[in-house]
Amino acid sequence: MPILTRTSEQPDLPRRGAVWSLTGHDRELDANLIRLPAGDEIPAHLGAEVDTLMHVVRGSGTLVTDDGEEELAPGDLALLPRRTRRGFRAGADGLEYLTVHRRRQALRIGRREDLPAPGAD
Fold it and tell me: How far apart are CA 73 and CA 84, in angstroms?
């Protein structure tokens, strides 16, 4: 069943953090709508083990990577390769962006013989 979310109708609170996340157990993607108020930032950090597509929904800001800084505006898309450094700074109107990536496998604790053989998919 398709899922429709109107990002323009998301409530004003919370003012910072993930204001929407894709839910459901039977999916292969993760997605989050991230909001930063004006002047706020997410310091540069090493990304996870998955490639991430980022789409600016509202506001403006700056994407900070090891290659430099890029100004962000609504409609901009950026591919953030896995395990690369990235940070975000919100502009005067704040910054709201959607991230989409392959769903990461949850940490499983079990006996070695219960785990799939290397390379088995």
Answer: 21
| pLDDT, tens digit (0-9, with 9 covering 90-100), for 25-34 | 788 889 999 9
Exposure of 21 in the CB half-sphere (CA atoms within 13 A): 7
Token pair for 58: 């509202």
Task: Give the least confident one: 6-10, 60-64, 96-100.
Answer: 6-10
The residue count of the chain comes to: 121
Tokens of 8: 């323009």
Domains of the chain: which residue ranges? 29-104
CATH class of the domain whose range is 29-104: mainly beta
Of 28, 5, 27, the C-alpha closest to 18 is 5
Instruction: Decide if 72 contacts 63 (C-beta within 8 A).
Output: yes
